[in-house]
Request: fold
Amino acid sequence: MASKFLSLACIRNENGSSSSRDLSARPHYPSMPKYPKGISIDDHDKNKRKEEEEEESYSESKSALFCVIGMTCSACAGSVEKAIKRLPGIKEAVVDVLNNRTQVLFYPDFINEETIRETIEDVGFEATLIEEELADRTFQVCRIRIKGMTCTTCSTTVESVLQGVHGVQKAQVALATEEAEIQFDPKIVNQNQLMETIENTGFEAILISVGEDMSKIHLEVEGVRIDESFRGIEKALWSILGVEDVEIEPILRKVSIAYKPDQTGPRNFIKAIESIENKRFKARIFPGGAGREPHKQEEIRQYKIYFLWSLVFTIPVFLTSMVFMYIPAIKHVLDAEVVNMLTIGELLRWILATPVQFIIGHRFYTGAYKALRHKSANMDVLIALGTNAAYFYSVFSVIRAATSPTFQGTDFFETSAMLISFIILGKYLEVLAKGKTSEAIAKLTDLAPDTAILLALDSEGNVMNEEEIDSRLIQKNDILKIIPGSKVAADGFVVWGQSHVNESMITGESRPVSKRKGDTVIGGTLNENGVLHVQATRVGSESSLSQIVRLVESAQMAKAPVQKFADRISKYFVPLVIILSFCTWLAWFLAGKFHAYPKSWIPSSMDSFQLALQFGISVMVIACPCALGLATPTAVMVGTGVGASQGVLIKGGQALESAHKVNCIVFDKTGTLTIGKPVVVNTKFLKRVPDFLELVAATEVNSEHPLAKAIVDYAKKCRGDDENQVWPEAHEFESITGHGVKATVKGKQILVGNKSFLQTSNVSVPADAEEFLAETEELAQTGILVSINEQVVGILAISDPLKPGAREAISILKSMNIESIMVTGDNWGTAKSIAKEVGIEKVYAEAKPDQKAGKIKELQNSGFIVAMVGDGINDSPALVAADVGMAIGAGTDIAIEAADIVLMKSNLEDVITAIDLSKKTFSRIRLNYIWALGYNILGIPIAAGVLFPSTRFRLPPWVAGAAMAASSVSVVCCSLLLKYYKRPKKLETLEIRGIQVE
Reply:
C-alpha cells in the first residue's frame, strides 16, 4: 500500500511498558547547513529514513488470489466475502463467481494466506492459493474521458465491457463526470486497447492520464518543417534519464513527455529540444488544457449551438401549426392546396421539421444505434422511437394527402420538432448544472500560481540571478522566491526567511501559520507578510495539490452502494417503458375502434388512431432514466467537493453512505485526542547539578525519539532558544528501544529513561522519585528519570497536551447519540486520565495494532456502525477494519489510503462535520430518488391518459418531452443545493468562543 502516515514512536514510561505514539510534529533538521550554502534535500530527509523503513512493514499490503470451487450464485460469493472481511488485517476482498476466483488484499503482519484459505474452506468451499498470479504483477491506473453517454444504461454498458477485457482488474465508469478509471496490468493490455474497446462500444474516448508515479508535460515546438526533425526531437528526449514516454502529434506540433519528477523535469526537455539542429527549434508549454474543464466548455458550446439552430426551424413549425391557424388571413394562405389535399402549411412544416429530425437530432439516432448494438436500451432509444413515430406518421399523412383528392389528415411535425428542441434545451441546462457540481476540482486546480520566481545560485550558495518562469517548469530541488502576497509555487521547505502563510485553501485552517527555516510549505497557499526562499520537494503529480485533486476526482468516480439500485432499475426501465407505450397506444386504439368511448372525446383535428398515437408517444418520451442515473453521482460530486472546501476529504459514495449511519466512534489517543507533540512541562531536581540540562541534552540529541526531541527543545529554550546550539560531545552512546539512552558526557555516565531502564542498569530509584512518577501518571504525563554516575538526580515530566476543542467535540457527539470510545497503545494510567479529561467513559489501553482492529470487529459484531479516528501507521489496520476510517492528517500527509475520510485540519470538530455532511448528502440522494421515481410514477400514467376520461386532460408529446428534460435538470439542481451546506451551529459556537486547533 502506497500510504504515507505520520511517524511512529514508542513512548517510554516509568513502568517499562512501551506504547505506540504517533507524532505529527514539525520535521527536525539537525544536520541541515545554513542557507545559502550546501542546500540539499538529502539533509532534509535524512532524519526520516529510519522511521520510514519501520513504517513499510505496516504500510504495504499484499495481494493473494485463490481458486474457490463450489460457488454457484451471488449468495455463495457473499458468504465467502463476508467471512474473509471479518478477519483482522483484511483490506479488501473481491469474489468472482463466474471465474471461481477470490482476490484478497491484506496486511501480512496480521494475517497470512493460509489463514484466509482455511476461512474460505470453513464456509464450505474448496480453496487453493494461486501463487504466481499476483505476486510480481504491477497494476497501472488510467483515466479516460468518455463522450456520448446519456444515461445509466450507457455507463453500465461501458463498465461491463471494460471489466470483460483480459488484464483489467477493476473499471469504474461515472456518468456524472463522464470518465472511466481503469486499473489494468500493462503486461497484458495497454491504454490504447482500452480506448479502442470503448470506441467499439460506440463512444468517443479521450485519454486523460496513465500511471500514478509519473508526471506529464505537453510542449509546442516551433520551427519544425519535416517529420525527420520530429524523429530527432524524439531521440533527444529519450536520451534523458527519467523519461518514461514520448508522444508526438506532428499536425499540432505537440510533444507529450511522461517522466519521473525526481530524475528530470520540463526545463531539461526544452533545453534538449532547443539544443539540436543549430538551435533552430523553440519549445514552450502547449497552450490550452487537457483537463476536464475545456471539454466541458466544448460540450456546453455544442449543445447551445444545437439548441439555437433547432429554434430557427422549430419556431416557424410551432407558429404555422398552433398560432397562425387562428389568424384568418394567414390561415387562408396556409390552407391553400398545392397538390390534391396537400396544403402549403403541411409542406412548410415537413420542410422545416426534417433538418431538426435528422441533422440536429442525429445524436439521438447515433446513441440509440450504439445502445441497441450492445443489446441495451437507453434514453436515446426512447427519444428516437417517439420522434420517429410522430415524424413518419406525419410523412405518411402528407404523402397520402398529396395523392388523394379526399383525404384530410393531421400532421405531428410540431411534435417531433418541439420534442427534440426541448430535450436539447434540457441537455444544455443539464450540462451547465453538471459543470457546477465539479467546481471544487476547478477551484483546487486554480490554486496553483501561473508563474514562479526561480533563483540561480553559485557554487557557494549565493543568489546570482532571479528569473520568472512558468510554474509548470518547476523541477525538484529548485530554489524559489516567494514574495509577500504571492502563492507558494510548489511543495517544499523554507531555507531562508520568515513569514506567515495562509493555508486555508488547502487545509481549511483559517489562521495564518508561522513559517521559518526548516518548516514545510504547501503549493497553492498564500504567503502573507515576508519573503521566503523555498526548496521544491514535490512537483507535478507528486504535489499535495495534485494529490488532493486526485483524491476528489477518485471520490467523484466511486459509486455509492445505493447507486446499485438505479443501475438495477436502468436495465429494465427503457424496455418496460417501450412496452407500456405500445400497450397505451394499443389500448386507446382498440377502445376507439370498438367505440368504447364517445366520439366527442376525440379532438376535431384528429381521429381515434391519431389520439392513441399521441398517448403512446407521450408515455415514451415522458419517462426519464437520466434523472435516476444522476440522483446519486451528482449529490456525491457536490458533497465531496463541499467536504474538500471544508478540509474534509471524503473518498467517494461508499464513505458517505457508511458515515451517515455511524453510531460509535473509536478514537486513538496520541495525535488524535492529543496534539501529538510532547513537551516538557515540569522538572524535579533531587540533587543540584549545575549543568543538568546540558548533560541531558548532549545525551538525548543523538536520539531520534520524540521524547528526546522534546527534552532537547526544552534545553534550547532554557538556554535562549539558539537554533545552532552546540552540545558537549557524547561518547559510548547507546539507545535501548522502549526504555532509554545512555552515554558518557564530560566524563560522567548519563542514563536517561524510564524506571525499569534504571533498575536494570543497577541504579536504585528513591522513594520521592517514585512518588513524583505516580503523580505524573495521574496527570497523564510521562516521567523520565535522569541518572548521573549511578545516582538519580532529576525527573523530567513530559506531556502531550490535549487538543483544544476535544472535550467539546466529544460532548457534541454524545448529544448526537454517538458513543465515543478510546483505544490506545499507551499505559492505562495515562489513557484513563486523558479519557476523563475529554469525557470518554469507555477506554481500552495498551492495545497493539492488531488488537485495535480486533476491538473494532467486536464492536461491529455487537451491532455498532463504527468509525475509527486515528493518525498513525499503527492505526491502519483499525482504519481498514472500521466501517468508516477517519485519518487525522494535515497538509502534505493527506494521501492516506487506509482511511475513507481524511481530516486535513487535524481538528476533532471535523469528525462532526464529516458525519453531518454525509447525513445531509445522503438525505439529498434520497430526495433525488423520491423526485426521480415520483416523477415517473406520476408522469407515465398521466401521459397514458388516466385523467382524460374524467377531465379531458391530455399531455401533448412535446409537453411530455419538456417535462422529461426538466426532470433531469431538477435532480441536478437539487444536488447543487448542497453547495450551500453550513456546518452544525454547535461547531460555529466553538469557533466564536475561539476554540481552534493551532
